[in-house]
Design a protein that fits this description.
Rossmann fold; Quinone Oxidoreductase, Chain A, domain 1; binds zinc ion; 2 domains; six-stranded parallel beta sheet; 11 helices
Length: 343
């Protein structure tokens, strides 16, 4: 089968397009003929090599994908050849204490399609049956591939962790990223007011076209003063900061009393300057979050199915042009998801 893979970790030049054997589904697994896959920043980290995560080489990238079930392994009961599915990238053991509580993304052996095992940048991918969910009929293949990882991540943070309510104000740091755009979509669907920051005037304009209530240029650094000005000195209820070191202290300074700070990543570094006095005096809560549970994925899927949620596709490349697609992501030129068409 045609696939995008690398034989050694490194920069953009290690990416190859070529032929690899079609995998076969094991017990409880399905083989999916991929129609579309989507890029995530994770793919770049995996290509460079993540300390502590050893992948079998050659490694196929890609956590997001949608396609048609080609065949099923022994013991698969709910899916059959021909079913149209979208993949939940998070794989859990189903047996540990966290899985038994339904907290699948806390699983002691939690891993992702495309991070620890072969991914979706290929004509075929294998996944556990439970991870292959019915594709919402109203979405194109490109749209179906574009939402799983980022929308699930944003959904868990906003709905489960922050318990976001209509009328509350959310500040999204660095709009344009997959998770940031997903959070904007979800927050508007839930009736929140949404402020966004970006260093790009064009991205602020695009965010407003998607419903953002205000945009702040974060390139001067001290964006919390502008947040205070917009909110009448109060600050916002929730901040989503996956940027990390470069923006963390300003994110804390942007929160109202009792506010909630959400993090699912730290693209500029994991060790920021902290403001502990403001955290305890203003009684702030910091929530770390990764991916989500099967129940959260199902809840979110329901909103895609009835048309209340839709992803934002930045651009579509053929599978063979994945190198160009990855360059667009690495240069942060995208707004929303970059998708690969596989068939
Ligand atoms: Zn588990």
């Amino acid at each position: 089968m045609k696939a995008i893979f690398f034989r050694r970790h490194g920069g953009p030049d290690v990416i190859e397009y070529g032929d690899l054997p079609v995998p076969s589904p094991g017990p409880g697994q399905v083989l999916v003929r991929v129609k579309a896959a989507a890029l995530n920043h994770l793919d770049i980290f995996v290509r460079r090599g993540i300390p502590g995560i050893i992948v079998a080489l050659p490694h196929i990238l890609g956590s997001d994908g949608a396609g048609v079930v080609e065949s099923v392994g022994p013991g698969v009961t709910c899916l059959k050849s021909g079913d149209e599915v979208v993949l939940n990238p998070g794989i859990d053991c189903g047996k540990c204490e966290f899985c038994l509580k339904g907290e699948h993304s806390l699983c002691v052996s939690f891993h992702l399609i495309g991070e620890h095992i072969a991914g979706t940048y290929a004509e075929y991918v294998v996944a556990p049956e439970i991870n292959a969910c019915p594709k919402p009929a109203g979405l194109s293949w490109e749209e179906a591939a574009a939402f799983p990882l980022t929308f699930l991540t944003a959904w868990r943070m906003l709905v489960t962790k922050a318990c976001a309510k209509p009328g509350e104000t959310l500040l999204i740091i660095g709009i344009g990223s997959g998770v940031g755009v997903a959070a904007l979509r979800i927050a508007k669907a839930l009736g929140l007011n949404v402020l966004v920051t970006s260093g790009s005037a064009e991205k602020l304009v695009r965010a407003k076209a998607l419903g953002a209530d205000g945009g702040i240029d974060h390139s001067p650094g001290a964006f919390s003063r502008e947040v205070r000005r917009i909110t009448g000195k109060r600050g916002v209820d929730i901040v989503l900061d996956s940027v990390g070191k470069a923006t963390w202290k300003e994110s804390i300074a942007s929160l109202a009393r009792g506010g909630k700070l959400l993090t699912c990543g730290a693209t500029t570094g994991p060790n920021p300057e902290e403001d502990i006095a403001r955290i305890f005096w203003n009684q702030l809560t910091v929530y770390g979050s990764t991916m989500g549970t099967h129940a959260e994925f199902a809840d979110m899927l329901g909103m895609f199915r009835d048309g209340r949620l839709s992803p934002v596709v930045d651009s579509v490349f053929p599978l063979a042009k994945a190198k160009e697609a990855l360059a667009r992501l690495e240069e942060k030129r995208q707004f929303g998801k970059i998708v690969l068409r596989v068939d």
